[in-house]
Sequence to fold (472 residues):
Amino acid sequence: MAVEKILVIDDEPFIRKTFEEVLRGKRYGVSSAASIAEAERIMKREQFDVVFVDVRLPDGEGMTLLERVSKGKTPPLAIMMSGFGTIESAVECMRAGAFDYLTKPFSISQIEVLVKKAEGYRQMLQVNEYLSAELAGAKDLVGNSVEIGRLREMLRKVAPTEATVLIQGENGTGKELVAQALYHASTRSHLPYIRVNCAALSENLMESEFFGHEKGAFTGAMERREGRFELANGGTLLLDEISEISPRLQAKLLRVLQEREFERVGGVKTIQVDVRVLATTNRDLKKAVEKGDFREDLYYRLNVFPVSVPPLRERVGDIRVLANYFLEKFAKQYHRPDLKLTPECTAALEGHRWPGNVRELQNAIERAVIMSEPEAPLISSVPGLLGHTSAPALGDASKVSEPHGESAPSATAAASSLLGDAQVSLAALEKEHILRVLSACGDNRTRAADALQISIRTLRNKLHEYRLSNED
Fold:
């Protein structure tokens, strides 16, 4: 619920009592004050979502309080009340930051309608803070292969339902795009779409992100905050890399999926939500269950409708389509609309196994566009095609080999050539490689972890070790 606590500021006892009876009957927390001074004392102690303010109060104008309230970091929605309502007064209040205006006498139904209106508005504001720019991108999967055709057909069938979907696939295959396609084709496409990257959060922070927290729940919790489940109420929640959550949090997540209710961290009030859950993972969750790393009951709760996204090496027919799609995108971005892929370049792309899948292909095309000669209309070469091994030139199909083939130098050999002929330890080679990949990814840890095919938690620990080593 986006509105929980309401403050009523009016010098008439009957008005205050009416509000308290109506709103408490709807399970809202209600406080009241008869003056500006009393209201300010209450607001110093508590945080409110909505305040009803009389325009005329014994110790001043309600407009004065409205101006003060509107300057806060997370101001409540203010609804002004007046027994002498005029168009001019209403306009003045709205310009000063009021959410709405209520003329006395008013009915109980008017109060209820205004609170519901405020709830919808608050949720919309909170959701907008989390909506990703990714949703502005492609809503369909790129490719003409049989494999992608089967995937589209599965999505077409499951999208209109309320079924929980578990999307499985290797890193870089486009699991998030599949989730977005499901959302856009669902009956909830006009409602919130919220994403949580489970791999990027610590256990304590993840619980707060999932369920929100109350003011003072832990050090640094300066105000109440709604979690992602609450923000997604009515819409869709994507739990990205679900395999990374801890056993303790797995139990809490299971309860939400079963009962559709939870409590915020540090809170006692039970909050009910209606959310469709999508989840992605690059791990085999069934094997994780067998090893005891993932709860069996949660696995079956998530695995209502499993979807497997094929790796790029199993959909070779899509490489040409994807390469041209990315070329068009980056050629436009880097102001090179004249660029084309040579037949030799396309053959080289189709001959590579792409361990990093679609994401690796996208990165290769972007590098090719950046490295292309200003006068040349064709892409002929790009360094670092494979990311973790030395790469053949785009346009020279004869130099294409398997990632671990004899003609492709290993990561260790490549790193040794970078470090010279000196004898170096495996740890030093690993550090050199990790830092180079991180630099190539613009210090984006999520992208670097994907390129290295390790979890972001492992990458974070490695970087922490290197920092401590440098300090020593």
Remarks:
- Residues 340 and 378 are 5 Å apart (CA to CA).
